[in-house]
Design goal:
Elements (H helix, E strand, L loop, with lengths): L2 H13 L5 E2 L2 E2 H16 L5 H9 L16 H26 L3 H11 L8 H23 L4 H14 L2 H10 L13
Antiparallel strand pairs: 1-2
């Protein structure tokens, strides 16, 4: 078995313990697999640290519930930052156990803690993959729980996080109605 497969198997095993289910599957296991599928489509030649960061982006996410933080924007940002730190530490542990060098582990940690969005191409690639995963799998159901104005802000923030390449590709891969599609144009 390769180091990559060892890391994927460990991430999947951890996420298989998620008590939250969608169609009978653990939510975070499904999310990790969806992230890998989007990464393979967007960045097929990705190096292993990026591939692992995509698979492990939400590793054991349920262990730190959103409800444990204030239900406002600052609370959300604090929760998301802490999740990134926890995900990076857990993925680093898995990569170390799989035999990856420190440089690869540190690079994956940098991606998972979002250090360098818009400046580091791999950090940006991870963000592009996460945005595509959100748009393809989660935006529709999510929009059912939000009003139009709030959804517009969410779509605008999502588009701002993406690279120009990913925004352009999103317009060709997804049916994004106006006024939302305007957020994806340069």
């Amino acid at each position: 078995m390769t180091r990559l497969q060892t890391a994927f198997d460990a991430i999947d095993k951890a996420n298989a313990a998620d008590p939250n289910r969608t169609d009978g599957q653990p939510d975070e296991l499904l999310y990790g697999q969806r992230m890998t599928a989007e990464q393979e489509a967007l960045y097929p030649g990705a190096a292993e640290p990026l591939r692992i960061a995509c698979r492990g982006q939400h590793i054991e996410r349920w262990k730190l519930p959103r409800k444990d933080f204030p239900m406002d924007r600052p609370g959300y940002l604090k929760w998301r930052t802490e999740q990134g730190r926890r995900h990076a530490a857990r993925v680093a542990e898995i990569m170390r156990d799989a035999g990856y060098p420190d440089s690869d582990i540190e690079h994956a940690e940098k991606m998972l803690t979002k250090q360098g969005i818009k400046r580091d191409e791999d950090v940006q690639a991870l963000e592009d993959v996460a945005c595509f995963t959100f748009i393809r799998w989660y935006m529709g159901p999510f929009s059912q729980t939000r009003d139009a104005q709030e959804m517009q802000r969410i779509v605008e923030r999502t588009a701002r996080k993406m690279s120009a390449m990913a925004r352009a590709r999103a317009l060709t891969e997804f049916t994004i109605p106006e006024p939302f599609s305007a957020s994806f144009r340069d």
